[in-house]
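Entry:
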Amino acid sequence: MSTQFGSTKRTLSTGDLVISVSEIFDKLQTTVDPNTLEQLLRDIISERRPQVRPGELITAELINQILAELEALEARIAKLETAGPVVPSGEPVITGLQPSSRVPIQSELRIMGRNFGLPSSNVVTIDGVPVRQFKAGSTDTLLIIDVPLIAGVTEQGKTVILTVSNPQGFSQTSLVIVPAVQTIPTGSLFATLSQSPSEPQLLAGQSYTFVFAVKAFTNMDEAFTLTPTVSTGWAVTIVDSNNAPIPAEIRIPKSDPPAGTIREVRVRVAIPAGPGPGTTAQLKLAVASKLNPTGLRITSGGDTITVGQPPPPPQRVTVSFSAVLKPAGAPAASRDENNVLVIPVTGTTYRVDFSVMNPDPGTYNYVFTPPGGLWTARIEGASSSGVLAANQGALVITSLSAQAGAAPANLILRVVKADDATVFGQFTQPIRLQLAP
């Protein structure tokens, strides 16, 4: 602790008692020996006394000198109190972090300080995990790194120690690490017709609303684009509960299995006045992630609209395309921008997988309709039926090959509960041969 002397009187003012040095000298000549008197005079003139002995005169100059020394000492103590610990010259010092708290794994972290020297001469550790790669822009006063994978990090965060060491020394601080921020949505999507129009027949010149259930299992919040289509080109629109057109987009939060998240999508189809009774069309809904449109997307299996007939029944079993696998040495097959499965070569058998998600437990039959013509397709193994628990997924494996000249066609997989035909799902996968270059 220091003492404040700023307000102490250190100079003489009008009215103060003043005794001249010569008068003091004259009075002391008869009582003090000449050597002592001479030393006293020198001390007064020099304004500094190393010590004061009992009986000696204390002057204003001496008191002022003492006050000045105390004030100077006070300033030095205050400076030491605010300067912090003394760091040996050359040792690294961490002065700050950016961001300063709740830093996600695999995100950029900036370490501000001094005496880092050549960035490559430093080793940074976070919770004991070393980091030796420094990003562009690192200097003697700034180290830029990506936070490494840290074990035991929960959503609440984990407080860890960050250290910087180099040949000159060592410094450390603490920070809170949180899980990595997901930037690419991944997961699974399902889209099925969940509610059909209540009218007994679909008539030309009328519009009807079909409701689809979009179910998602995703690792992060994401926006999805909606693309409804009718194979005949009839007008189709995404609408709200009042059948007013709305933007063709939905937002789905992060959705963990097994519950996931279900969103309803209302699709309004306008049947033109021209088509006669018996005219059919396929209604489909495509759903695609905005940030990962090729990796996270789904197209409903297709529901047949027939003019003059009742609307298609809702599908309670979700059937969807899963993957296409090539044999060794063969070129890869894939689906194009219109979700048509393109087979690149003839005479080669490709594996085509479908996923099934059912709402009710029981035995389900898999009815596979091959495309015919110059195509060959079948269900592999003993996959013609399966016993499934509620909300249990299953994989149905089929094989597909084409001969030269095979025309575009469809693979159709229908899954029906053995004891209740109203519990079913169907998926129609368009297929074609790759066009010759």
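Helices lie at 21-28, 34-46, 60-83.
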